Amino acid sequence: MAEWSRVARRIRVPLGFVFAVLYFWLARPTWRFLALGSVLIVPGLLIRALASGHVRKNEALATSGPYAYTRNPLYLGSLLIGIGFAVAARSWWVGALLVVMFFAIYVPVIRGEEKFLREKFPEFEEYAQRVPRMLPRLTRAPSGEDGGGFSSELYLKHREWNALLGSVLLAGALILKMKFFS
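Now predict its structure.
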């Protein structure tokens, strides 16, 4: 399992590009389904943006902002974005592939990252007891430390604007497909 986690970490981005080509080919978007998908895409982008402005990779355990509700807000945001674009595609194949990719790629990656966090930050175990892995709490987890507020510098450092840019480009591609290939 540890070996697959390393492989999954390495192939997730290239596999994402392959999935994007397949996605575009299988997509049968309509304005209505693009709007419905946006109901999930926009919150997913916001969650990712907020999370990236709270995480200080390898320096401190992130427990503030979205990290007070879920241990993996970046992956939760990505999942919402993915489901939103699956809805926009109006294709069951896209939805099925998304679910398979999430469980095959991201679940092992999350487990590997949690193993690293347990080794690097002794307080992770207590944090993991208070905050769920993926589905968020409805209320903020109690914490003895603030962890600081959102940092636009961290948002820019982590290049999280790429998620927004990619989503806008993909939505634009779906609009072009509706206009010229329907």
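The chain has one domain: 2-180.
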